[in-house]
Amino acid sequence: MPTLTYLGHSAFLLQSEQAALAIDPFLSGNPKATIGPDDLKVQYVLVSHGHGDHVGDAIQIAKANRATIVAPYELALYCQRQDCQVHPMHIGGSFQFPFGRVKLTIAHHGSMTPDGGYGGNPCGFLVTMEGKTLYHTGDTGLFYDMKLIGELTPIHVALLPIGDNFTMGIDDAVKAVELLQPRLAIPMHYDTFDMIQANPEDFVRRVRVAGYVGKVLPVGASHAF
């Protein structure tokens, strides 16, 4: 049974019997984080796009663990130039890793590497392990293809930004739940900075009113699914 642990902002630790994955591990400089990059022991690091609050500590974590960074092609090459082992992918592509399958989805956002270079397209990740699928949507606005994503892949847990300004706000995130129809929706990308203040309990309440299940996962808390 996979276990998901919230690390703050959009950072998560996903673990199964086969492997441990860090997703968008922004820990250093994250005022909500309760652990540091040296505390993570993983075999893979998934990075959705090049912004500093998502690349975060990916390079340091990958080097310390000899882990593989999985990212869109251009961003993967940036990480490779930092002497990391990488597995480049791109939108719509999937790959069967030893722990399970990863597929990249679109994400309506931007992507610039920390050095100001071209970061390629941002993405979301569909991660399937032990027969369960997690959808980390990345930084994104609402898009109607979420309906198609949900139809093609039954989603057990969807991680959705609610902080507005740079991504979906609560209104659009609730609509995203209606399109994706996951078994569980968990909010992310809120309250880290003043510009993305949002009430996650309001999101959960409105998801419930829409007929779905939402859950606020406090920083450091885990959820098995």
Topology:
Layout: E1 3-8, E2 11-15, E3 20-23, E4 44-46, H1 52-55, H2 58-65, E5 68-72, H3 73-81, E6 85-89, E7 94-97, E8 100-106, E9 123-129, E10 132-136, H4 145-152, E11 157-161, H5 170-180, E12 184-188, H6 200-209, E13 222-224
Parallel strand pairs: 3-4, 4-5, 5-6, 10-11, 11-12
Antiparallel strand pairs: 1-2, 1-13, 2-3, 7-8, 8-9, 9-10
Helix pairs in contact: 4-5, 5-6
Task: Write a brief structural summary.
By secondary structure, this protein is of the alpha/beta class.
What would you note in describing this structure?
It is a single chain. The chain has 225 residues and is α/β, with parallel strands linked by helices. Helix content is 22%, strand content 28%.
Specify Rg, calculated over alpha carbons. 16 Å
Low-confidence stretches: none
How many domains in all?
1
Helix content bin: 10-25%
CATH names the topology as Metallo-beta-lactamase, Chain A
Tally of contiguous helical segments: 6
CATH class placement? Alpha Beta
SSE series = EEEEHHEHEEEEEHEHEHE
Instruction: Describe the strand arrangement of the main beta sheet, using strand numbers.
Output: 6-5-4-3-2-1-13
Question: What gross morphology would you assign?
Answer: globular
